[in-house]
Amino acid sequence: MSTSLGLLTGAITSLLDPQEVAQPRYQPTVETTWQIQLQGATNTGYQADLYILDLFDTPQSVITDLQASGRKVICYFSAGTYEEWREDEGRFTAADKGGQLDNWPGERWLNTRSTNVRSIMVDRLTLAAEKGCDGVDPDNVDGYSNQTGFPLTYDSQLDYNRFLFNQAQSMGLAVSLKNDVEQVADLIDYVDFAVNESCHEWQECHRLLPFVEAGKPVFHIDYIYSQDPDGHAIHCQHMGSLGYRSLTLPVALDDSYRFSCD
């Protein structure tokens, strides 16, 4: 190829692809401190590196202000359940919706094999990218181990989760593995961090050690030690020995109290 032809080809390529080189997605570390709040006016006063906030309910201004102060924002949404109060709830068909979740009124399991469900979730990821979220925390990605009303299996769940995580990362979003400890070995390479609720109550915290070994953080939530200072201290010592970042929080995740192990 002649020099002039090479220059012409380069010029055409530049015209056809004017976008800047995409920035690498956010990668939290095992040293990252965090906060999660899904209800109520967001308390931005914590000295936390990362905030997990509701995708739909969090105002754009809160995300922008947190990022302007050097914090990262991870946007939470349910990827495995229908919630009747969400703005896109009308897009789910009757066939998409399965059994009710225990203790969570207005919430039903989804058929995650459904192409319609997957399309809606891609749009939720797109919303997260448009709002400037640094990543996402898709919840309820373990339907196969629950009574959903659908014949979901380990393999069908794995297929859905990999689909979801690949879509998120293709949009430049960091993505979590929420609970679903049985699939850690099959999914750790598809996610950037873990968010876990109550692994200590089920004696399964050891299942998340591969994350720390890979340099990926485990953000842990405890719901039982708010009225037990001695128990909380022992709990924090245990979480610290594993390398996990643990918070004791109300089940409502409404910031009515917060006890950090950091």
UniProtKB/TrEMBL annotation:
Listed InterPro entries: Aldolase_TIM, GH, GH114_TIM-barrel
Gene3D superfamilies for this protein: Aldolase class I
Top-level taxon of the source organism: Bacteria
Pfam short name (any one): Glyco_hydro_114
All residue ranges annotated as the Glycoside-hydrolase family GH114 TIM-barrel domain in the record: 33-256
Name of this chain's protein: Glycoside-hydrolase family GH114 TIM-barrel domain-containing protein
